[in-house]
Amino acid sequence: MNIAQQLALWADKLRDISAMGLAFVRSSYDQEHYRAVQDVAMAMMAAAVDEPLANLEPLRATVLSCPTPFSVGDAAVIDDEGRILLIRRADNQMWAMPGGALEVGETPAQGVVREALEETGVQSEPVALVGVFDSRLCGSLTRHHLYMFVFLCRPLTSGERGTASHAHEVVDVQWFAQDALPEDVDPGHASRIPEAFRVWRGDLRPFFDR
Q1: Alpha carbon 71 to chain centroid distance?
Q2: pLDDT digit string, tens, across residues 100-136
Q3: What pTM was computed for the model?
Q4: Phi and psi for 129 in degrees, rounded to 5?
Q5: N or C terminus: which one in the chain shows less Cβ crowding within 10 Å?
Q6: Is residue 165's pLDDT more than 80?
Q7: Exposed e or buried b for every residue in 166-191, given b needs 16+ CB within 10 A?
Q8: Strands of 8-141, DSSP E
């Protein structure tokens, strides 16, 4: 872990402390102090990711006010030919499994199926839990601490693509064999895709960080 990553982790810990404090605060005095902790967390995060502090300000009422690590999910959609469905993300131009933040009112499995459909137009169904990954340990490029659920999914309707409602988040969608993956795979996905193929081949033991 380099200095920037360590600084981001400390900032996210302060973000968590301030968010939890603001959620249960009972006095204006405590509210003021937890807000000050949030200010420090935002300044540290901006320094860690080399972004202007103003860029993080819109996140204060949403992302930065959420206590605990964030829950996200990815769909490892693998067809009968052993090809995995990947997207080229619009934000960093890297290839990745379709996925994103899980929403209130859905299970993690439902969330990854929704994300895959939104980003690729491919309908799928969850088959098995590949694992639960800690973003700090799998090479993920993120400013926040994430718990990342990966589910092996089976494409429906022969993997045919419909209309992707979130196509603006994606610049390309393709199927890849494991031995022919693109070189520019997001580091956090490059470490988890082999686990998805392991489960696809029949080893149903879910991965988890120890």
Answers
A1: 7
A2: 988 878 999 999 999 999 999 999 999 999 999 999 8
A3: 0.73
A4: -80, 120
A5: C
A6: no
A7: beebbeebebbeeeebeeebbebbbe
A8: 70-77, 83-89, 95-96, 99-101, 124-134
Q: Look at the alpha carbons of 115, 139, 52, 9 in this order and tell me if their dihedral is positive or negative.
A: positive
Which residues 6+ apart lie within 8 Å of 141 measured at CB? Answer: 92, 186, 187, 188
Q: State pLDDT tens for residues 170-197.
A: 899 999 999 999 999 999 999 999 999 9
Q: State which amino acid sits at residue 134.
A: D
Count of C-beta atoms within a 10 Å radius of residue 124: 25
Domain ranges of the chain: 3-65, 70-208
Token code pair at residue 157: 């309707």
Q: Is 60 helix (H, G, I), strand (E, B) or coil?
A: coil
Amino acid symbol at 118: E
Q: Is 90 in contact with 169 (CB distance < 8 Å)? A: yes
Question: What would you measure as the largest C-alpha separation in the chain, in angstroms?
Answer: 61
Query: Looking at the DSSP assignment, which residues form a beta bridge with residue 122?
Result: 161
Instruction: For residue 119, give the nearest of 91, 148, 149 by alpha carbon.
Output: 91
- Which stretch of DSSP H or E encloses residue 174? strand 170-177
Give the SS3 label for residue 198: helix
